[in-house]
């Protein structure tokens, strides 16, 4: 890994577009150290809140696990029972939590770039980690994907990585194609061509599944995001047809090179984008990605704590 000249210190972590190569490698380095047992000591009690206005299993629970492992106190917040339902704005909700003493938070929201108004508001000082904005960015997922790839190959330069599936609606695809290209990997795309729009063509070519599987180091699969697709399109969707044309079938997995791996941000729709039997096969790193998610989120939170001078020691 390149020499890290300074530990990551960020006021907020909201988009991969804000990160340089050194920033990304610094997060991966910190996450790797947390995985090896590194701990931090805080200067005072620090409070975190997790605001998930969209469904989540992995990101929500692993941010909370990361916060607890760092010694933060986690304040419970449930949007379904909150005053958001009485018309309170997101900005006022954040300022309320800040006023009661929350220092850092993870936020997921269906609105693309919801964070722009928050991080530019001079009255908001709480640290914001973007836990996913609509089809925009998912920086903690991207960083855990990068950590998992780095653990496997020890570098990014020259790797061939295919992102396959519902590209248009995927914040993972957006975050990862930018980061992987910046790190020197070659990005390819697969799945229904209607989702391979100009923004993706600027980053890499589209290939049929049978060509991708025989050439790639990493097959990164995405689920079809039915919640972001209209009723007509959902009505015409056939899981069996999709699996046959664009899925990682048993036959296609057998065509993959020996050292290649399978990734998926999950949740997985077994039998659609990937055969049921392959979710936990030897090549699959899907549950390793989830494990690494805790350490990456420890690194993200620590970067915001360093920025606020709340870290006494790291050992
Ligand atoms: N990968 C991911 O973001 O999963 P969740 O939606 O369960 O958080």
From TrEMBL:
GO BP annotations listed: 'de novo' pyrimidine nucleobase biosynthetic process; 'de novo' UMP biosynthetic process; amino acid metabolic process
Amino-acid positions noted as binding carbamoyl phosphate in the UniProt annotation, renumbered to this chain: 58-59, 108, 138, 141, 266-267
Enzyme class: transferase
Coiled coil: none
Binding site for L-aspartate: 86, 171, 223
Pathway assigned in UniProt: Pyrimidine metabolism; UMP biosynthesis via de novo pathway; (S)-dihydroorotate from bicarbonate: step 2/3
Keyword annotations of the record: Pyrimidine biosynthesis, Transferase
GO MF: amino acid binding; aspartate carbamoyltransferase activity
Domain of life (superkingdom): Bacteria
Residue ranges of every copy of the Aspartate/ornithine carbamoyltransferase carbamoyl-P binding domain listed in the record: 12-151
Aspartate/ornithine carbamoyltransferase Asp/Orn-binding domain sequence ranges: 157-303
EC number, as in UniProt: 2.1.3.2
Catalyses which reaction(s): carbamoyl phosphate + L-aspartate = N-carbamoyl-L-aspartate + phosphate + H(+)
One Gene Ontology CC term in the entry: cytosol
Oligomeric form and interacting partners: Heterododecamer (2C3:3R2) of six catalytic PyrB chains organized as two trimers (C3), and six regulatory PyrI chains organized as three dimers (R2).
NCBIfam families reported in the protein's UniProt record: asp_carb_tr, PRK00856.1
Its job: Catalyzes the condensation of carbamoyl phosphate and aspartate to form carbamoyl aspartate and inorganic phosphate, the committed step in the de novo pyrimidine nucleotide biosynthesis pathway.
HAMAP family: Asp_carb_tr
PANTHER family registered for this protein in UniProt: ASPARTATE CARBAMOYLTRANSFERASE, ORNITHINE CARBAMOYLTRANSFERASE, MITOCHONDRIAL
Family the UniProt entry places it in: Belongs to the aspartate/ornithine carbamoyltransferase superfamily. ATCase family.
Protein name as it appears in the record: Aspartate carbamoyltransferase
């Amino acid at each position: 890994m390149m020499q890290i000249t300074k530990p990551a210190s960020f006021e907020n972590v909201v988009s991969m577009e804000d990160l340089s190569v050194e920033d990304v490698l610094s997060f991966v380095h910190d996450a790797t150290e947390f995985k090896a047992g590194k701990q931090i000591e805080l200067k005072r009690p620090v409070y975190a809140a997790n605001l998930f206005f969209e469904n989540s299993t992995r990101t929500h629970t692993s941010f909370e696990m990361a916060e607890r492992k760092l010694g933060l106190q986690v304040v419970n917040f449930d949007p379904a029972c909150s005053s958001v339902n009485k018309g309170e704005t997101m900005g006022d909700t954040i300022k309320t939590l800040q006023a009661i003493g929350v220092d850092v938070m993870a936020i997921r929201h269906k609105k693309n770039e919801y964070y722009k108004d928050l991080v530019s508001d001079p009255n908001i000082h709480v640290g914001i980690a973007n836990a996913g904005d609509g089809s925009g960015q998912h920086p903690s997922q991207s960083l855990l994907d990068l950590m998992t790839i780095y653990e496997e190959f020890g570098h990014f330069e020259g790797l061939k990585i295919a992102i396959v599936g519902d590209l248009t609606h995927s914040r993972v695809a957006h975050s990862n194609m930018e980061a992987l290209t910046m790190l020197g990997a070659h990005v390819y795309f697969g799945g229904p061509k209607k989702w391979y729009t100009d923004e993706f063509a600027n980053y890499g070519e589209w290939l049929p599944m049978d060509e991708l599987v025989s050439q790639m180091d990493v097959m990164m699969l995405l689920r079809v995001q039915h919640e972001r697709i209209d009723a007509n399109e959902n009505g015409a969707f056939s899981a069996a047809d999709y699996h046959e044309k664009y899925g990682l079938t048993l036959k296609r997995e057998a065509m993959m090179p020996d050292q290649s791996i399978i990734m998926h941000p999950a949740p997985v729709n077994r039998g659609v984008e990937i055969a049921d039997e392959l979710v936990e096969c030897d090549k699959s790193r899907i549950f390793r990605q989830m494990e690494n998610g805790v350490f990456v989120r420890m690194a993200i939170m620590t970067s915001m704590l360093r920025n606020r001078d709340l870290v006494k020691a790291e050992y």
